[in-house]
Amino acid sequence: MARVPITVMGFRCDRCEHEWIPRGGSEEEPRLCPKCHSAYWNVPKKAKMDYEHFKAKIAATLKSARKPLTWTEIRTEASLPQLFPNNQWVHRLEGDIGLSRKRESDGTIHWQLGTVGGNDAKTAETANKVRPRARSKQSAVE
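RE: above sequence
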């Protein structure tokens, strides 16, 4: 008797890359991956956004608006998935594209593009810097 290769169709998990052959040769898809137990074994992972893509979207949105915008307005117009911006990326944007944020008297923070480089940018940055809110309660120990 000769040995011959036989090809059998199986499944591969998009989450953990596990490959398996279903029991009993059933035609229906499995509900879970047998290794990682994910119900989303056949749904590809979403690609995470990198800083350069985030920077380009923020800059394009603020340039097209030509007025200060809140984070919610930026997020909606640029179709960004984050509920809140990454703080480290926001600080990098201040230097890279001249982003400035200004807190209004009602507490809303408006984002706008300024000039990059020069003393005017530093002066505007320190004048419009977002400051933490004042504490409303004082501790009993003080």
